[in-house]
Design a protein that fits this description.
Elements (H helix, E strand, L loop, with lengths): L1 H16 L16 H8 L4 E4 L4 E8 L8 E9 L2 E7 L2 H8 L1
Antiparallel strand pairs: 1-2, 2-3, 3-4
Length: 98
């Protein structure tokens, strides 16, 4: 029984350690390079692009509770620099799914 509790705790710590929390987005600033964003945020869930910009898409945990709630966030880069960031809109979610 004790081994099972320890195993469950270790599994929970593993998954929390792999999670990117929404509060990290507060460290992103306009003008940051892609490398700086990746250093702060870690790897994105996906990367999309159009003819004018590259988008780093993240699924971030809003808060740690018994039921995880992830929210899509987007960081827009033009010429390798951040020009906007925040929660992804419906339009950006549709673009990411194409």
């Amino acid at each position: 029984m004790r081994k099972m509790h320890i195993s469950l705790i270790l599994c929970a710590l593993f998954f929390v350690g792999c999670t990117t929390f929404a509060s990290k987005i507060n460290a992103v600033r306009i003008g940051m390079s892609k490398a700086e964003v990746l250093a702060v945020m870690g790897p994105p869930s996906s990367i999309t692009a159009d003819t004018t910009a590259e988008y780093l898409n993240y699924s971030l945990l809003e808060k740690y509770t018994a039921i995880a709630h992830y929210t899509p966030y987007e960081i827009k880069l033009v010429n390798g620099k951040v020009v906007s960031y925040g929660r992804a809109s419906a339009a950006t979610t549709e673009r990411a799914e194409r």
